[in-house]
Amino acid sequence: MQTKLTPKERFCNILSFKPVDRLPYTDWGIRGATMREWLKQGFPPDANYRELFGFEPFNHGFPVNFGMIPPFEAETLETDGVYKIWRDETGAVRKDFIVTENEGFVTRSWLSFPVTDRASFVDMKKRYIAGDPARTPKDFELQCNNANNSEGNTCLRIPFLFFIAREWVGFENLCLMFYDDPVLIEEMFEFIADFVIEILKDKIKFMQIDLAEVYEDMAYKHAPMISPDMFKKFMFSHYKRVFDFLRSNGVKFISVDSDGFNGGIIPLWIEAGVDAMTPTEIAAGNDPVELRKQYPRFGMFGGIDKRVLAHDKTAVYNEVMSKVPFMLESGGFIPHIDHAIPHDALLSNYIYYSEIFKLAASGLPVEKPRD
Fold this sequence. Notes:
- This protein is α/β, with parallel strands linked by helices.
- It has 2 domains: 7-69 and 114-361, TIM Barrel; 73-113, no CATH class.
- Helix content is 38%, strand content 15%.
- It is built from 15 helices and 13 strands.
- The protein has helices at 7-15, 32-40, 49-52, 118-124, 140-148, 161-169, 171-180, 182-200, 228-234, 236-248, 266-272, 288-294, 313-321, 324-330, 347-361, and strands at 60-61, 75-79, 83-87, 93-97, 109-112, 154-159, 211-215, 219-220, 223-224, 253-257, 276-278, 299-304, 333-337.
- Strands 1-6-7-10-11-12-13 form a 7-stranded parallel β-sheet, sandwiched between helices.
- Strand 2 (75-79) and strand 3 form a beta hairpin.
- Helix 6 crosses helix 8 (182-200), helix 8 packs parallel to helix 10 (236-248) and helix 13 (313-321) runs parallel beside helix 15 (347-361).
């Protein structure tokens, strides 16, 4: 029988494709609109959901700020009683509802972005001074020590190339810029990679990093937002450079956070040194079982279709049992709901999901529901 592992040991063994006693118990946080509905359905008002569902320590973070310093000052530009047009903290001008009906699930309309050309990019760089002391708290070393000694795995989250550039110029503008101004794209990506290394070069020695997770969000439903050829041309070398730096400083694993269907970019990620991806969204066309067959040593997080939580227990059972036993056996998979738990997810279904998931994650039999 497999020896009981700590959460950190379990995490590292899974991504190393080594034997484990079971899969981790973890999931997304509960967003405001979902909790609003769950409270109506009987969720204990004073309960800690992580304790209630028995989640284990997971992805203990480090306090490094890779964002704009200072951020833009949020400013309302006009309102009409229903909508407001405002500038957010990233400098983007947006049109949003004044009253947000479903907290955590916001529909936004983007009107403009702070970077439109090289001159505005040069101006934006002033907000990305790597040596700014505000990038870490005064007790940075103490917080790192606490993370290093935590029961669960540690995780350094890094906004990266596509993610940051999209925040600066907007999604459509960025996609067009690969064709209209490739020189500026190359300059922006080189700057971002340099920025990440510069921030970390005198700080990473204090961090024992199990997982470096880079944020990209560079795919949509059924396809990446950038072709493999363009990834190879514009991004691959920066991935290699930053990931080689991380590896040389003791980082054990590297994952890419990219919603949607990443398809043909996955082999290039693997070549660049990526160990895993998250959240493996099912609605976008991902199939963890098929992906495991294609990429036998590539890790995955997520992969449990959030949409079944709005249906019935049979749908939940079929989703869990079609994936978790296979992935427990094949390794390299840390399953959880494949994105934020939606506000139409029934609390009763989620309770049932958490119960049968724990059984399946331990290799135990699960009876079919009778609903």
